[in-house]
């Protein structure tokens, strides 16, 4: 059996190695010729899987995407050919939740403000949005949810988007990208909506770039320096609008979901699904794949202040490093004046490929040596509190 896998998918050899021959490829540049003799195709978000890619392949048994989003997959086409498909719902939701939470702590620190005193609005209350809400609730931040698709069937309370914008100091976006339908999200934040943000709003986008009209965002930011923006995703990836970057407080190349646990979970979910499709027993476990954190335990004496919480979070992941590297990459590209392709070949994708996967909070055991109640840190995701 030939298994064709994206080169940026960890643990493929460990999980799929017994099943056949593995060939790894650059997912963004995968051709129909390369894909023609694959029995199993394992992709990430940068590969468009459609009739054009699979037209030469008459034997494919399974397509898997180790991602939450499926906007790169023509699922109707796969269904029309009875090709089993699976993505990995929720695989990196914790990674996104923690990334967003850390980004908010960074903003609070930068502007000498307090996250705890804010009201945060989550647009899209599925896996990633709920993961953000969980971190915020653990810390005691007031959260409002907007999700008209599930509002009638979900027991949580929801507000309209207008109410959320009106009441929230911070807004974080967690919707899939959809171009049609009553609840389409393409340019959900267009110029009018961006202009309707309250003074001093923080706006974070870690879902898909085109949920915000990036050209309009530049225009609005030119008039309104009070709005603070965090972008992990960009319209037109892998070639973001370079002129937008200076208006963004924290800028990263679509790596909010890049925790080691998140990536391992994505590959593992596809392994489990393939074994089911093949009717074989799955005998591998995910936990055995993950290495220990370089420091597994940290002792704290008292309830951390917001600044100490940021320090604790930076111990796991210092978002400023990725922001700095992203800006350096953009600077090189703009000085070469090669916006098209350069960001792809030398920048955006390269930075994603070489990204050293951070760990999730759960990899760190935090032990309380004092009397203070720090159990909420375990709700945030850390292990071993209070022992
Ligand atoms: N930056 C990154 O690294 C990552 C980005 N993503 C992106 O985030 C998206 C969301 O991921 P999940 O939360 O796991 O998906 P999910 O499917 O669990 O949740 C999405 C939620 O958005 C809601 N929704 C749909 N249209 C909406 C609208 N117009 N207004 C408000 N809510 C709406 C849905 O009802 C659903 O509850 C993915 O589709 C993917 O594009 C996901 C993982 C990592
Ligand atoms: O899961 C998703 O959806 C994402 O956006 C992924 O985290 C993106 O990662 P790649 O698949 O592009 O490596």
Automatic annotation (TrEMBL):
NAD(+) binds at residues 147, 232, 257. Residues 9-263 form the D-isomer specific 2-hydroxyacid dehydrogenase catalytic domain. Pfam families: 2-Hacid_dh, 2-Hacid_dh_C, DUF3410. This is Erythronate-4-phosphate dehydrogenase. The active site is at 208, 237, 254 (proton donor). Homodimer. It comes from Shewanella eurypsychrophilus. Residues 289-381 form the Erythronate-4-phosphate dehydrogenase dimerisation domain. Residues 113-256 form the D-isomer specific 2-hydroxyacid dehydrogenase NAD-binding domain. It catalyses: 4-phospho-D-erythronate + NAD(+) = (R)-3-hydroxy-2-oxo-4-phosphooxybutanoate + NADH + H(+). Gene3D superfamilies: 3.30.1370.170, NAD(P)-binding Rossmann-like Domain (3.40.50.720). Catalyzes the oxidation of erythronate-4-phosphate to 3-hydroxy-2-oxo-4-phosphonooxybutanoate.
């Amino acid at each position: 059996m030939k298994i064709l896998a994206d080169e940026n998918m960890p643990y493929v050899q460990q999980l799929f190695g017994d099943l056949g021959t593995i060939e790894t490829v650059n997912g963004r540049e995968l051709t129909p010729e390369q894909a023609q003799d694959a029995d199993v195709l394992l992709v990430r978000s940068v590969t468009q899987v459609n009739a054009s890619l699979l037209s030469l392949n008459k034997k494919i048994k399974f397509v898997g995407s180790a991602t939450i989003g499926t906007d790169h997959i023509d699922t109707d086409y796969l269904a029309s050919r009875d090709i089993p498909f699976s993505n990995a719902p929720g695989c990196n939701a914790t990674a996104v939740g923690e990334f967003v939470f850390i980004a908010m702590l960074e903003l609070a620190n930068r502007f000498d403000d307090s996250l705890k005193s804010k009201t945060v609005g989550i647009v899209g209350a599925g896996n990633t949005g709920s993961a953000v809400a969980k971190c915020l609730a653990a810390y005691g931040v007031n959260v409002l949810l907007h999700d008209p698709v599930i509002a009638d069937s979900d027991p949580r309370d929801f507000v309209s988007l207008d109410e959320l914008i009106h009441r929230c100091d911070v807004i974080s976006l967690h919707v899939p990208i959809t171009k049609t339908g009553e609840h389409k999200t393409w340019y959900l934040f267009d110029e009018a909506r961006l202009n309707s943000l309250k003074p001093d709003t923080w706006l974070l986008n870690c879902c898909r770039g085109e949920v915000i009209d990036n050209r309009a965002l530049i225009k609005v930011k030119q008039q309104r320096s009070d709005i603070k923006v965090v972008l992990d995703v960009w319209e037109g990836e892998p070639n973001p609008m370079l002129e937008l970057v200076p208006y963004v407080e924290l800028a990263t190349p679509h790596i909010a979901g890049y925790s080691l646990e998140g990536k391992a979970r994505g590959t593992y979910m596809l392994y489990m699904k393939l074994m089911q499709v093949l009717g074989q027993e799955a005998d591998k476990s995910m936990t055995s794949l993950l290495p220990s954190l370089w420091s597994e335990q940290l002792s704290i004496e008292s309830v951390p202040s917001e600044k100490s919480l940021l320090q604790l979070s930076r111990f796991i992941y210092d978002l400023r490093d990725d922001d700095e590297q992203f800006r350096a990459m953009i600077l090189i590209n703009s000085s070469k004046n090669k916006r098209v392709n350069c960001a792809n070949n030398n920048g955006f994708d390269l930075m994603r490929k070489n990204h050293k996967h951070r760990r999730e909070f759960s990899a760190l055991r935090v032990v309380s040596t004092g009397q203070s109640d720090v159990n909420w840190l375990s709700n945030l995701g850390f292990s071993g509190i209070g022992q």
